[in-house]
Amino acid sequence: MSEQEEDLELQALQRELDGAFESTRPRRGFEDELWVRMQAARPATNRLRDAFAGFFEGIRAVPRVPMGAVAAVLVTALAIGVIVYGGSHGGGSATSSGTFEQSGAAPRAVDAGFGMLPSPVLGSAVSSGQISGGAPTGSEYLGPAQISWAGKASVAGGSVHVYRYREPSINTADQFASALGAVLRQRPQGYLGIYAASKYTLRIRGTVGSPPSSPAYMIDASTSMPPIDAAGASPADYASIFLAQHSLEPQWPYTVTTDKSGDPIKVVYERQFDVTGYGLAYLVNSNGDRYGLEVDLRADQLASVTGPLPLSLDTADYRIVSPDEAIRPTLSSQGTNGSVLPPPAVQLTHVELVYVLVPAGDHSFYEPAYLFSGSLQVSGKTYVKHVLAPAVDPSQRTP
Amino acid sequence: MDVRSSSRARTYHEPAVLADRPPFEDLYRDFLGRIYAYVRAQVGTPADAEDITAQVFMNAYQAYGRFEARNTTPAAWLFRIARNATLDHFRAHGRRERLRRTIEHQPVAEADPAGQAEERIQYRALLARVAQLPERQRDAISLRHSGLSFDEVGKLMGCSEDAAKMLYHRALKAVREAVQKEGV
Hints:
heterodimer, A: alpha+beta, TATA-Binding Protein, 7 helices, 19 strands, about 30% strand, B: mainly alpha, 9 helices, globular
């Protein structure tokens, strides 16, 4: 055997050893079991001390709000009477509360905050907001428009959670795949891994910068995937059964919508974030469309599943501005677009607090934003226009 | 020959992160799989690997207050504890017992929930060969393929980086010969 052949053989063996070590993981449940054992084994005095520390950290974590702002919030709340939430809730059936981690643990509060936050990139047309499609009612209007804001602010500012996650590693992906019983096949560019199980292929990737997309897993059913055994069940039921069978049910709040208009049928678990004092805020993409976990079905047969990779989230509170303040830069940056005909006027009348993903390298964020909407008439037809604007106070995020 | 041209990126090698000691739970979640794999490659049975891994993290949890981030990486620190725990295990049970258990738990005999996935069986067979190497060779392979740099492997094993590379290379050749001989 030549030296070159020997080198190639050893390199192949190294790759196999890499695969062997990376695919060797403890049985499912061991991680949480051991963690619980470790916690239980700690001296009672330490546990008590930590409990007190957590209590006082919790107090420190409460944002300091100037008294003037408190008064303004109270006045606004009294004037409005009841905080109004807008937006349609799709064809949803169930809203389920859950926690944000696969293990079921609540997000950890970070006392010191995350520092200056990166600003969401919501579009190129306007510096701090994007005119986009996606309508709660009526058809989408995608063209330019002269925007004005005449709605009532249903959110008066204050502080809300910002969520942060660490970019998942190959180990994270391998553990997720291993828990599903899938075996590593390859690691092509753009993926943390592609894995094979007996009835499907699993792909796992990290955060995508543009358009922003959370770390995700994608299951593509093979031809040997058996039908889901539930006679008379709805597509949402089929989706729920498959997810339950594979322990993939979302651990976050969601609303289920079903789109039967095409093939495959799409069942979407629209992700929400619980906002203290507000309610549930949807996660939307840069077009303002809600998203989360999607199960595609053909009759009673699973076609594919695309969902966010379960990751633990840290939280920190950040001050948000009112919708009036948030939309102001968008309104002030409007100019003539150079065309002979002026764009149609759109009066935004409704606003909803949402969350958007802001990729930022090793750590990315789910940040609050406002989704404004209003309708306009073009050639006798009603259209809806959406504008997305960052909600975090500009002084707490990078320009 | 360049024994291994690239080492995988590891979260906790970044000095900026080291300066601000991460919560122990982060360390635990990030390293549990790697520590388990390191131990599992040497002890041959999942039950032993779980016991030793549990001991590693129990010890690390208790000692984390004394961990000096500026002196070592969390990876090197944890693998040092894992290495000691594994050596303690062998001292307690003896090498003969270890070999017996390794042989008894050949991969073909294990049930595979994913339908006897061929690749997984092959990987286990490969790790069984690693487990049968002489102690230092086994250690060099296991530490290196757990993501440590040769510098870290050398420090843990009490030798230079170059010596660690040579040891690893010899171990690699030994695994290849075993594979060729036994047709894994």
